[in-house]
Amino acid sequence: MPTRLDIDGLANVRELGGLERRDGSRTPTGVFIRAETLDRVSNAGWDRLRAHGVRTVIDLRRPEETSGEVPADIVRHQVDLDGDERDFWASRESDGQWGTPLYYADHLAELPHRLAGVLTAIAQAPDGAVLFHCGAGWDRTGLVAAVLLKAVGATEDAAAGDYLASFDNAPTMVDLHARSFEVDERRAVLARFGHTPESAFRAMWRGLDLDPWLRTHLDARAVEVVTTWRGTVAPAPVLSSVDR
User: How far apart are CA 108 and CA 118, in angstroms?
Assistant: First the structure.
């Protein structure tokens, strides 16, 4: 089960640590944290993040979305995961796939440099935990989380539970941020494509053949950092895209 953190100013924040891996172990804590926009994080909230080991923040949003400040003692990288490739995004924005896992596989295949930039920033980050976020902490953040979990050998059930936690957190997110996070719309889009949130994520996960992607688009050091979770575990055994 995902470990939600109690951080003042965040409603969709959680550890990627503590999730089951295929070998029966758990993903290490204090390495990766996912979240929504950091605009409302209080000084006390930043103190809690520091106490949890956060030393680097990676903002996955487009440049025009950037808002808020990160304390000067925390390294911040802006890495635009979406990009401005209209040929890719126009149809996915019109049919709503942009807010679901339905676009993840195509994004990795057609815009590999975007995710490669994020993973390279992770590989170059100083010691300490890395927090990555977008606006809602849902799909851009969800894509990065899925890749990191697949890279470390997390089970499909654990990864699906992490993704679905955003749906559980949505009411609190609405209360905190005073905006809709389109939960009903997301479900409706997925239903039009014959999916629930869970089935869409699981289908994506089973088709994610990550090892060759990593070795094609990252240098050897970045591959090692990603697959060992910044040196905290041994690399997971390579399997086919479906966990056996």
Answer: 12
Strand partners, 131: 33, 57
Cβ–Cβ under 8 Å, residues 235 and 226: no
pLDDT along the chain (244 residues), means of 10: 91 98 97 97 97 97 87 96 96 95 98 98 98 97 98 98 97 95 96 98 98 97 97 77 46
Q: What is the pTM of this model?
A: 0.95
32-35 sheet: strands from edge to edge? 3-4, 14-15, 32-35, 129-133, 54-59, 75-78
Question: CA 194, CA 28: separation in Å to the nearest integer?
Answer: 35
Q: Which residue has the tokens 């979406």?
A: 82
H helices of the chain, in order, are: 43-51, 86-95, 104-110, 112-124, 140-151, 156-177, 183-192, 197-206, 210-217, 220-227
Cα 126 to Cα 35: distance, rounded to the nearest angstrom: 19
